[in-house]
Amino acid sequence: MRVKVSELKRLASKAIKYYGYDDKETKIILDILMYAQLRGNNQGIVKLIGKGIPKSGKAGKIKVLKQTKLSALLDGNQNMGMVVVTRAMEIALQKARQHGFAIVGTNNTCSSTGAIGYYADKIAKKGFIGLVFAGSPETVTTHGSYEALFGTNPLAVGIPSNKEPMVFDMATSAMAYFGLVQANTAGQKIPGDVAYDSKGKLTTDPAKAMEGAILPFDRNYKGAGLALIVEALCGPLVGGGFINYNNPRTNWGNLIIIIDPKLLVSKNTFKQNITKLINRVKRAKKQPRVKEIFVPGERGNKLTQKRLRSGWIEAENNLYRQLKKVAEA
Amino acid sequence: MRVKVSELKRLASKAIKYYGYDDKETKIILDILMYAQLRGNNQGIVKLIGKGIPKSGKAGKIKVLKQTKLSALLDGNQNMGMVVVTRAMEIALQKARQHGFAIVGTNNTCSSTGAIGYYADKIAKKGFIGLVFAGSPETVTTHGSYEALFGTNPLAVGIPSNKEPMVFDMATSAMAYFGLVQANTAGQKIPGDVAYDSKGKLTTDPAKAMEGAILPFDRNYKGAGLALIVEALCGPLVGGGFINYNNPRTNWGNLIIIIDPKLLVSKNTFKQNITKLINRVKRAKKQPRVKEIFVPGERGNKLTQKRLRSGWIEAENNLYRQLKKVAEA
């Protein structure tokens, strides 16, 4: 079915409030969920149905544990991941404006940060290079093993250009954990090369995969290495959990790094050259049946713009119905 | 055949001098080549045979184009890539010691930086997190294309632990360009899924692949995205060439980023937790026929230590013979 974007936002906003968030938090969460929803990223409105995102009863004030001119470490104090990382981003932007660089980590949260491309995009729109990393409990194995060790450990990089920023946002796993949950709920199989069961056999059964482990995205050692690096950045570097140390279930870590390109080159030249780079990649010779070559983030931007222009968005009947139920509860 | 490590070093040192480098440059290049050679990385002594690494007649003084408390941009002035990136690393280390962070870029070189894990390893051994990126002219395609656009664009990350650092060093391409050259010289085929010919067909012929393009390492869009990000960091961000802008053939760019973990957590806790992380990954349940799980850099470290302990190293007869010829020329 088709829904008005404004109506979807209204319902989503009510649903977020239903889960216990105040106006300011609701605005933040809504913005991040709509970013994902509008661009066809699966970290959107779907987060508001099923178990949803109830605010933790343990949530207290976000605390600054450590701070230098270039850095800060935040204790998320069991607040919603998106709210905590947004705070981290704001602090990082402030420091980067002053010094050209900032690094801000967060720990002690246990809920989703949403599509981390959102933060990279925001940072890049201010003219900075943004690197964002997110940790979560162990669901992904390493090369040579079949045991769940790492989170799905996404990384995102935002790079400003003269038009839309280039925003690269990838999980280091072959599938999102949420993909397993969705397939399981829908009674669907998963592809044969994305997950092991608990005995180390490749499985197409999402329920068995949830007891086993997801593979690194390239099913190989480079992907496993990248997943491990993100684990190090979102665990040890920020006081977050990692594998089974430091309470990984309730202590997810996140990291934001901001670099001002003017530390090295002029901001305008940088943006111009990134624009040239993007345009050149888009002009590359295409393989048969490839209609257009997209740079990271571009496909989602186009879909977003199209939906915002028309004011309408496609939504699964089921998703819409359930969202409405929560919003009107 | 087996050669004394000391003898290989002596010959390599003479060969480097034969190519026109002074004592200081020779020491730098030798150290980087031996790092690769001892750990079984293919960016070692083999660089000294065939065309070798003659010092450019155009090489002048390395110049600092821009400098802030946190950053520097170097004009490599056609010096050897390894010499220029070593200088960049030294400057970055100095700044990181003072401020906890440094970013140093280089442009205007056109020769190999060697195994960039070398620099990441050095940085991590000083207790810092090191990120290293290296650009080179277009040999790698993007997702949906078969045209050579990006360099093989390696990235390396070094992370300190209580023992050896964890050093992750990967090309974002499915094969090193040098792998094509080697296969072509040896009259060997390449695997069927690493390169296109100039018409966009997968090829096992290295000569055809050299006229075509190498695939991203995962043969997919995530690898292509990472290759593009490295292209942006080693091109536009440092005034280096990219695709066919800014003289990519003679203007390779490189980037070093150093982060002191103590910006966020105590250095000791960080190292201890990285050590725990490494040990835990090594204890992961193994797949059948997997004897040991290695963390990034570990296999190379073990091989290096074994060779240094015994004082002997295996070397191809042909490599040794040709190296000797250059050294004694």
Distance separating the two termini of chain A: 22 Å
Query: Which sheet architecture does the biggest sheet of chain A show?
Result: 7 strands, mixed
Helical element count of chain A? Answer: 10
Low-confidence spans of chain A = none
Sheet-strand content of chain A, in percent, reads 15-25%
Structural key phrases:
homodimer; 329 residues; alpha+beta; seven-stranded mixed sheet; two-stranded antiparallel sheet; 10 helices
How do the helices and strands line up, and which of them pair or pack?
The structure is a homodimer of 329-residue chains.
Chain A: E1 2-4, H1 5-18, H2 23-38, E2 63-67, E3 71-75, H3 81-99, E4 101-109, H4 117-125, E5 129-134, E6 155-159, E7 166-170, H5 177-186, E8 195-196, H6 206-211, E9 213-214, H7 221-234, E10 252-259, H8 267-282, H9 298-310, E11 312-314, H10 317-327
Parallel strand pairs in A: 3-4
Antiparallel strand pairs in A: 1-11, 2-3, 4-10, 5-6, 5-10, 6-7, 8-9
Helix pairs in contact in A: 1-2, 1-10
